[in-house]
Amino acid sequence: MSQDVKYDVHDMPKPGLLLGLSFQHLFAMFGATVLVPILVGIDPAVALFSSGLGTLAHLTVTKYKIPAYMGSSFAYIAAMQMLMKTDGIGAVAQGAITGGLVYFIVALIVKFAGNAWIDKVLPPVVVGPIIMVIGLSLAGTAVSDVMNKTVANGEKVYDLTYFIIGMVTLLAVILFNIYGKKIVGIIPVLLGLIVGYIFSLILGIVTGQEIVSFAKVGEASWFHLPPMSLPFLDYDVKFYPSAILTMAPIAFVTMTEHFGHVMVLNSLTGKDFFKDPGLDKTLTGDGLAQIIAGLFGAPPVTSYGENIGVMALNKIYSVYVIAGAAVLAIVMSFVGKVSALLQSIPSPVLGGISIALFGVIASSGLKILIEAQTNFDNKKNLLIASVILVSGIGGLTLQLSGLQISGVALSTILGIALYLVLPEPKD
């Protein structure tokens, strides 16, 4: 274990610290997890509930050996929006369940075929740039949250006040991380969020601009039952072949992201989760989490880079912290006022935090290349890394009859293909 690791995978912090660290992970995943259902037309409380339950399921399947948080997947948004307009939540649920079954099938193949192929198709020259893409492909969203304000007609316009809030939040995270001692240095993201939130309140009062709105907090009840669709309780279940054909193939796209996230965790923790608990277990955990989401009428879930970013930043990899965040997510889904308060966090605050988190993920990829002493005078290595970075960060997209493969997924496929096809240059 690296000397700078503060809590390893099976280390349990003291109760008070555990709660604070778990809240930090809750905040890290919250924005993206609730954004997906909002874009699709599903109540975000359901997504919060299923993300927590799915995470606990993933932890159980992987025998509490891998610290991964499950949040709403962005890969399915276009498919879900289309299905919601045509067939409704029942079709989305059926598609999500089918995607989970695809994970199960692949996990079964891996169990019997082994995973030795991983080292052959995913060498450092492929893995490093893929991890960099995972972080940098999210950069546009983080920067947009810092700079742009959404006006009445839905248009985003540049706002200097938002920019200032985002930079103050980012600076707070950096300062807490570098100069913080003891507990302060362990929860820099949570403290940065608090600083950004309070600064937003003060700046709003000074400028007369409503940056933080408590309207929904006042309207919300203390107890709020997430409006779950529970399509599995509908005895008149309709079969949606279009949902299956649309969403099932996307599972292969999220799998490539899953491989990338596991690679990052391997790099951070110094462990090999492909071997223990095994890739078949991590895939099964992801698949079960997706099925749970489908059963409750929530968006499909996937492992979250945001939470990996938190771990990279604070060097705390405890599965108990991740489990705590999952329990908090479930509890919060039933507490109306707390859920509304979380949704009141201004986007520039979330953006400022995201700049740090996504950047740390990208730097982890660079670290892999450096530690492997990758030779970029080798033309094969140079071309593979170049193609992965530009196609992934640029958002290169392949569309085939409703199936869309883009960003991380497509750049991963291209990188693996090039590594297997291109010959080694002769001396």
Automatic annotation (TrEMBL):
Domain of life: Bacteria
Keywords: Membrane, Transmembrane, Transmembrane helix, Transport
Pfam families in the record: Xan_ur_permease
TM helices/strands, residue ranges: 26-54, 66-83, 89-109, 121-140, 160-179, 186-206, 239-256, 317-336, 348-370, 382-399, 405-422
Keyword set includes Transmembrane helix: yes
GO molecular function: xanthine transmembrane transporter activity
Subcellular location: Membrane
GO cellular component, one term: plasma membrane
Topology of the protein relative to the lipid bilayer: Multi-pass membrane protein
Entry's family note: Belongs to the nucleobase:cation symporter-2 (NCS2) (TC 2.A.40) family.
Name the record gives this protein: Xanthine/uracil permeases, putative
Native source species: Streptococcus sanguinis (strain SK36)
Taxon lineage: Bacteria, Bacillati, Bacillota, Bacilli, Lactobacillales
